[in-house]
Design a protein that fits this description.
Structural class: mainly alpha
Low-confidence stretches: 24-42
Order of helices and strands: HHHH
Number of helices: 4
Shape: rod-shaped
Protein name: DUF4148 domain-containing protein
Keywords: Signal
Amino acid sequence: MFANRVWHCFFSVVSFLSFAIAGMAVSGQITAGDFDTAPAVGEYSAITNFEARIDKVSFAADNRHHALRKARIDYYVDLARNSARQGWGYQEQDAIRRAKLILDHHVAQGLNDNEPG
């Protein structure tokens, strides 16, 4: 008789926890619409400042090295923006840092880059 009560109590606690965890998982789901909204003014200022810096640098369309650098920079900026939307500050900063390194390299190579693509 005591074993039945213990089993019933254990089963009730497990059932409660499973419903509680399932409820938390459902309430925390991300919908596709969460990524469609534009950031508020002042959000992602590091990203927008960096994009303004990118706009000041020229990339030759006929040079494959320039095209590759531009594609990699765009990839890291997109990664930073998505990380910011998720609230992943470290990954956002890391992506911006990587994009800055590529851009700095591009600017430095631009001074010596006379070879055709």
